[in-house]
Design brief:
460 residues; alpha+beta; 18 strands; 8-stranded mixed sheet
Length: 460
């Protein structure tokens, strides 16, 4: 009211009739006494609120009605004239613009909030990408990079932004001069580039790099995105897997990838094979180290190939000896026969090898085979672990090998009992092995009979 006091709710009632008419006709209304105005006779809101002087003008913006301004006085009549109406129309025009500006401001503020949220989200996503991402402009200056890129390239001088790309990736400087113009001219990406640089903070690493055009809204935009993927750990695991394939048959590896190896030890029956190169110590005294390593690898390679061909597991190398076992980590119902076949294959392969190498390099294996119970599992610490077999049966196999002559295969009676009617063998004198209270009944393995040969050939 005139005294600028808060109005009572009952005094805030307006004439909805007047407002509705202004909205429907989009024309202003001026009445000096609504009680006597024939346009509003018998209108309940006019009569109920004792309305007298009324001004009501539309709020128009660009030809669209967005609201009205309403003024009334319930006490006096005739206080509004045409000049007041014109003034109100002018105020209405300004008010409509002000309201629209306020709406636009609110909309922009909301949009800015959304954009800021999206930018923060993209920044978080960009920062969390494990690949290194670098963007460069047409002058090969870095315009954007994430933390992963800085870590990968070993950059410790703050942000990469603003530096020339060749300074950040000096080990591919020559290739950048060739690839960057090609990507810009052809608008095609280059993927799968592999590099093995030495990073001061990390040592030897392996990277795969992709270079892609980064086209923006400008036609002359020659920006490029460089994505770096660190393959160092993957290559290390691949190298370990390759070494593993030299110890375990590929068929075993394929099954192991489907089933985890139990961390705790597992007690099971296995067949253990030990093979040792006879007279290797005397040979090593007369040979150069390079020749010694070459000869050792050739003979051990023969043994490894024979074991893996029969899907055995190479446990370890002990100097010039090899230990292998069968029936683990995967169950093999014919594991004794597999061990016997491996020993005979080693003998045959050594004979073939001896025919093509100088006489002074012609050596032979002494081999021992035993069947018995052992504990198998991952042994060691977090830094180094190996899958191995432990138990008296393993020691027994080693004792048999130690008593075997060059070119001889000794097999325990326990193992022979598992392949009865499949092998040809002759009994030899029992062995009094170190650590054994009773002599070990032993046979010399001569070969496989026809039935066993058929079984082995069908499996292979």
């Amino acid at each position: 009211n005139w005294e600028q006091e808060t109005l009572d709710d009952t005094e805030l009632a307006i004439s909805q009739t007047v407002v509705d008419q202004v909205i429907s006709e989009n024309q202003p209304i001026l009445t000096t006494d609504a009680q006597l105005d024939p346009r509003f006779e018998r209108q309940e809101s006019i009569i109920a609120h004792n309305l007298r002087s009324i001004l009501c003008a539309p709020l128009n913006l660009k030809g669209e009605l967005i609201g009205v301004i309403y003024i009334d006085n319930r006490i006096r009549s005739g206080i509004f004239r045409i000049t007041h109406l014109n003034l109100l129309l002018t105020v209405a025009d300004q008010a409509a613009v002000a309201i629209e500006n306020a709406r636009l401001f609110e909309s922009i503020r909301n949009s800015l909030t959304e954009v800021t949220g999206l930018k923060n989200l993209m920044d978080n996503v960009f920062a969390s990408i494990t690949s290194g991402v670098i963007t460069i402009n047409g002058s090969d200056i870095i315009t954007l990079s994430n933390q992963a890129a800085e870590v990968m390239v070993g950059w410790e001088e703050g942000s990469l932004i603003g530096h020339h790309i060749s300074k950040i990736l000096p080990w591919m400087k020559a290739d950048l001069r060739r690839y960057l113009p090609s990507v810009r001219d052809t608008n095609r990406q280059i993927v799968g580039l592999e590099y093995r640089p030495v990073i001061a903070t990390r040592g030897l690493v392996t990277f795969t790099i992709s270079i892609s055009p980064l086209r923006g809204s400008q036609q002359n935009d020659r920006s490029i995105a460089i994505v770096i993927d660190d393959q160092t750990e993957k290559k290390r695991l691949e190298a370990h897997r390759y070494l593993f394939t030299r110890m375990v048959s590929p068929a075993v590896i394929e099954e192991l990838e489907k089933n985890d190896v139990p961390l705790q030890g597992k007690r099971t029956f296995i067949t253990t094979l030990f093979a040792d190169i006879r007279n290797f110590t005397q040979f090593s005294e007369k040979s150069h180290p390079e020749v010694l390593v070459e000869v050792l690898n050739r003979y051990l390679g023969v043994a490894v190939d024979a074991v893996l061909a029969n899907e055995g597991t190479v446990d370890k190398f002990q100097g010039d000896a090899i230990m292998a076992f069968f029936n683990a980590p995967l169950t093999q119902s014919d594991h004794v026969l597999r061990a016997v076949s491996s020993a005979l294959d080693i003998q045959k392969s050594v004979e073939n090898l001896r025919e093509i190498i100088p006489p002074e390099m012609r050596l032979s294996f002494g081999i021992g085979i035993h069947y018995g119970e052992a504990v198998l599992g991952l042994i060691g610490t977090e830094q180094r672990m190996e899958y191995t077999a432990i138990g008296d049966s393993v020691n027994t196999s080693k004792r048999l090998q130690e008593n075997a002559a060059a070119g001889q295969i000794l097999i325990s009676s326990t193992a022979v009992a598992q392949v009865t009617n499949l092998v040809d063998c002759n009994p030899v004198a029992p062995i009094r092995a170190k650590g054994k209270s009773d002599p070990i009944e032993v046979y010399e393995l001569l070969g496989l009979n026809l039935d066993a040969q058929f079984l082995v050939s069908r499996r292979k």
